[in-house]
Design goal:
Protein name: ABC transporter permease subunit
Number of helices: 14
Keywords: Membrane, Transmembrane, Transmembrane helix
Largest sheet: 2 strands, antiparallel
Strand content: under 5%
Oligomer: single chain
Radius of gyration: 21 Å
Organism: Gaetbulibacter aestuarii
Helix content: over 70%
Mean pLDDT: 84
Strand order of the largest sheet: 1-2
Distance between the termini: 24 Å
Pfam families: ABC2_membrane_2
Length: 274
């Protein structure tokens, strides 16, 4: 595993574009820190500072930061599809296979790189969140600080699943731009199917089925936190209540898709004439 990961990291770091995109992928999550410094001037009457409103209290901050950080995943998605496109355009895929790398090892090297960067991003977000929370949070008890850190697990699985999907599309079309376009097509397709099911049955059934779709299941791992923040400010508004927790079956669904995408990538490579 270490050998394959080192091989892939060497390829990525020797590519100038990949290095820039990887750098941006790790710098952008620091934008979460900017949230804590935002000040909103309300008609010159008073100033709202997000850091003083309690939105960075433990444990809700784990939900908030992982949700916002996950919005930056598209930058590393470009790296994933590019590393496949470059293999074909630079003929390095064929050369690797000639040099003794099996097709299985080739796909595993890509997956190990995806898992490595997903884990590194998760650790980074965890440290950023901990620092912001310790600075702003009113709660400093150990059990409260580390409550709901399962959002970090959800964040890792979300990245792993999304990048594995990008890996599959990269293997399918062999071109970075087309692979990214397929993500948009899949997004539209999921909503079209949702609309058809709603028309044939009802919204409740359609939503339950939609939660098993690839992109939707990844999104459901970390639901939007805005409604939850509003609930803390207006606890009497029971109509705002919703299920924002991380569930084991949601993680299982995304891990299932992840395994399928990696397997299909291997099948494509195995059957393709190089």
């Amino acid at each position: 595993m270490v050998r394959l990961l080192q091989l892939e990291l060497q390829k990525l770091l020797l590519n100038r574009t990949s290095k820039i995109l990887i750098f941006v992928s790790f710098i952008l999550p620091f934008c979460v820190i900017l949230l804590s410094s935002i000040k909103i001037n309300v008609f010159g009457l008073f100033t709202l500072e997000l850091g003083e409103l309690g939105v960075f209290n433990f444990p809700i901050i784990w939900h908030l930061t992982t949700f916002f950080a996950s919005q930056f995943k598209f930058f590393f998605a470009i790296v994933v599809v590019s590393m496949i496109g470059n293999e074909y355009s630079n003929k390095t895929l064929k050369q690797n296979l000639i040099d003794g790398l099996s097709k299985k090892e080739f796909i595993l090297s890509k997956f190990y790189a995806i898992a490595f960067f997903s884990l590194a991003s998760t650790i980074l977000i965890g440290l950023i969140t901990l620092c912001i929370g310790l600075y702003y949070s009113s709660y400093t008890e150990f059990n409260i600080i580390f409550r709901q850190t399962d959002f970090l697990l959800a964040y890792f699985v979300k990245l792993l699943g999304f990048f594995s999907l990008c890996l599959f599309f990269g293997m399918l079309v062999k071109r970075s731009a087309f692979a990214l376009a397929f993500l948009f097509i899949l997004y539209l397709l999921e909503w079209i199917i949702f609309g058809i099911i709603t028309w044939k049955f009802n919204v409740d059934i359609a939503e339950k089925i939609q939660n098993f779709f690839p992109l939707k299941s990844m999104y459901k791992l970390i639901d939007q936190p805005f409604q939850r923040i509003a609930m803390t400010k207006f606890p009497e508004k029971t109509a705002m209540a919703y299920d924002y927790a991380v569930h084991w079956y949601e993680i299982a669904i995304v891990l299932g898709w992840t395994a399928l995408f990696v397997f299909l990538s291997f099948v494509l490579l195995k059957k393709r004439d190089l």
